């Protein structure tokens, strides 16, 4: 008598979520020079990576990613101020 086993999925939902978060982090980091909105997206993807770390039980990873999210959010806030200062220094656009 053979016992039929269920096939093991290649990737479960949590692993897919983690892959998405880390891939989004990589893409957003690579694109940061194009727009400050990619810095904000990087912060969001770091927050997703943090959630993934806590959900999978790797709390040190979750803590580090949460810190990265805060750092990236501060960088985004500073970049918005930098772009406003840059526009003021260049004078009005005609």
Describe this structure in words.
The protein is mainly alpha-helical and 94 residues long. It has a domain at 34-84. It is 77% helix and 0% strand. It has three helices and no strands. It has helices at residues 13-31, 36-56, 59-90. α1 (13-31) runs antiparallel to α2 (36-56) and α2 (36-56) packs antiparallel against α3. It is elongated and about 70 Å long. The termini are far apart. The mean pLDDT is 88.
Give the SSE layout.
Elements: H1 13-31, H2 36-56, H3 59-90
Helix pairs in contact: 1-2, 2-3
Salient structural properties:
94 residues, mainly alpha, 3 helices, 0% strand
Short description:
Helices cover 77% and strands 0% of the residues. The chain is mainly α and 94 residues long.
What's the pLDDT, averaged over the residues? 88
N to C succession of SSEs: HHH
Quick one: overall form? elongated
Percentage beta strand:
under 5%
Number of strands: 0
Radius of gyration: 20 Å
Largest sheet: none
Instruction: Please report the distance between the alpha carbons of the first and last residues.
Output: 84 Å
Extract low-pLDDT stretches.
Answer: none
Helix content: over 70%
Class inferred from helices and paired strands? mainly alpha
């Amino acid at each position: 008598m053979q016992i039929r086993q269920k096939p093991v999925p290649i990737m479960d939902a949590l692993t897919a979520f983690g892959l998405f978060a880390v891939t989004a982090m990589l893409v957003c980091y690579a694109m940061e020079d194009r727009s400050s909105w990619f810095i904000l997206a990087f912060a969001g993807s770091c927050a997703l990576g943090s959630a993934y770390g806590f959900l999978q039980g790797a709390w040190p990873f979750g803590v580090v990613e949460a810190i990265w999210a805060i750092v990236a959010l501060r960088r985004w806030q500073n970049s918005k101020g930098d772009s406003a200062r840059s526009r003021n220094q260049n004078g009005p656009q005609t």
